[in-house]
Structures are given as structure tokens and as C-alpha cells.
Specification:
12 helices; two-stranded antiparallel ribbon; Four Helix Bundle (Hemerythrin (Met), subunit A); 265 residues; 3% strand; Arc Repressor Mutant, subunit A; 2 strands; 2 domains; mainly alpha
């Protein structure tokens, strides 16, 4: 995180500045539901880039003075911003702007799946089928050696994981995230990162299916080989085959799962 006296001063200068010639970032709040008005103004500052990830908000007392509201209203606003994933408060250090886009999307997707659990994983499978074959194809063309190294290391970890679901699943996630990084598109990486929690749950289900991890490794190695050879068509095809296997295994009935293994995350 980046924060400094310069950052703090720059952020504070936007709060209802009275200096001649300054264009204030914020206006004094004079309506009911004050904290919502504060949230709206801070959100707008984040969207416009006036506040960036790592910037520190002024102290609670100073914010109250700048906005012309009580400290209670400021406290409620910060709480709402935290719930949206836009800020994080650290005891003794202050409140900082986060890279809230991915976190906010992740929270929304997780909630959607929890509300509609029956359809959640099939919907996830459809989203992956749309995104990941083209991610693999782009990565085959654009990937650099650091991401390839990560993919190779992830495959090696999965080979050695045996019956350790945590080691296998984390390496599996690393493999797919490295592929997304290899596509060299930050929006793609953000989209995939936003569903990591859902992917972890899906993989945990697959780990309980006899032969599921082994089948997954066959496909991982085919994807890696295609990407290493910069073969976009083969990478796309290999990923489609992998996702078909993932979908079939994740939909396997409970009776076909290994005994003693959890079925939810």
C-alpha cells in the first residue's frame, strides 16, 4: 500500500477546500442520510481517479470537519465503504483505499451462488466455458517466461499432492491464474480473480470424485504443452476438453464421491 504525507495532503485537499481558485472534490453535505452522501462522494472520487488504491483517507475528525457532518456519520460511511470492499481500516494506522473492483465482484458472485446454490456451479461452468478457452488461446500467443514457470511449478505440485486437497487445489488455482496473467489483459485477470472462491469450491468437489485430480492433470499438461509451443488453437481445444471434464466431475452424484471427503467448502 502506498501512503505518505503527500498522499494524505492531496486527499485531504479535496474535501471542501476553501482556497481561492481550487476546484473542490467534495461538497458540504446538507441532506438526510448523511453517510450515504459521503459514500457517494468518495465513490465518485475513486471512479474519477482522485483517490487511488493505497491512498489514505484523512482521520475521522478531519473528514467530519471537511464534510460538515458528525463523526458518527463519517463512521457509518466508512463502514459502508468497507462492506463494499472499497476501503480497509487498519488499527492504529488509518483507513486506505483498496483495489475494490475484484473484491466487490467476488462478493456479489459468491452471494449469487449462495442464494441459488442448486444452479450456482452449472452457471459457473458456463462462464468458464465462455472465458477460459479464449484466455488459453491469448496466453499461447502472449505469455512470458515468468508465467510459464508458474504453470510448470503448479503442475509439479499437483503431481506430488497425492491425497492433499489443499495443496492440489491451490496449485490448480495458481495454474489457471498464471494462464490469465499470460493473456496480458488486466480485465481478464480481474474477471478470473473475482471467481477464485467459486473455483476453489468447484475443485474441492472434483477432488472427492475418484480419478478426478488425475484426469485434471492430463488436461493441465496438454494445456501447458500447447501454451509452451505458442499454439493458440491447440490451447483453446485443450482447455475446452479440460472444462468438459471438470463439469462432468463436478456434477457427479454424491454416491460416486470418495468416502470421508467434504463436498462443500
Amino acid at each position: 500500500m502506498r501512503y505518505s504525507s503527500q498522499t494524505i495532503s492531496a486527499a485531504a485537499s479535496g474535501f471542501a477546500s476553501n482556497c481561492a481558485g481550487d476546484k473542490a472534490l467534495y461538497k458540504l453535505v446538507r441532506t438526510s442520510r448523511l453517510y450515504e452522501q459521503i459514500v457517494q462522494q468518495i465513490e465518485e472520487s475513486i471512479v474519477k481517479g482522485a483517490l487511488k488504491p493505497g491512498d489514505q483517507l484523512p482521520a475521522e475528525r478531519e473528514l467530519a470537519q471537511r464534510f460538515g457532518v458528525s463523526r458518527t456519520a463519517v463512521r457509518e460511511a466508512v463502514k459502508a465503504l468497507r462492506e463494499k470492499g472499497l476501503v480497509e481500516a487498519y488499527s492504529g494506522r488509518g483507513t486506505f483505499i483498496t483495489d475494490g473492483t475484484t473484491q466487490a465482484v467476488r462478493q456479489s458472485l459468491d452471494l449469487m451462488v449462495k442464494i441459488g446454490q442448486h444452479d450456482g456451479l452449472p452457471h459457473l461452468a458456463e462462464v468458464r466455458a465462455i472465458l477460459e478457452p479464449e484466455i488459453a488461446a491469448l496466453a499461447a500467443v502472449r505469455i512470458q517466461e515468468p508465467e510459464l514457470v508458474t504453470m510448470r511449478e503448479a503442475v509439479a505440485v499437483m503431481d506430488k499432492a497425492g491425497q492433499d486437497p489443499d495443496a492440489y487445489i491451490e496449485a490448480d488455482l495458481d495454474f489457471h491464474l498464471a494462464l490469465a496473467e499470460g493473456a496480458c489483459n488486466p480485465l481478464i485477470l480481474s474477471l478470473l480473480d473475482s471467481i477464485v472462491g467459486l473455483l476453489r469450491e468447484q475443485r474441492l468437489r472434483i477432488f472427492t470424485v475418484p480419478g478426478g485430480p488425475e484426469r485434471g492433470q492430463i488436461h493441465h499438461k496438454k494445456i501447458l504443452d500447447a501454451v509452451e509451443h505458442h499454439d493458440a488453437d491447440q490451447a483453446r481445444h485443450a482447455m475446452r476438453d479440460h472444462l468438459l471434464q471438470v463439469r462432468e466431475d463436478s456434477e457427479a452424484p454424491a454416491g460416486k464421491r470418495s468416502p470421508g471427503r467434504p463436498t462443500t467448502h
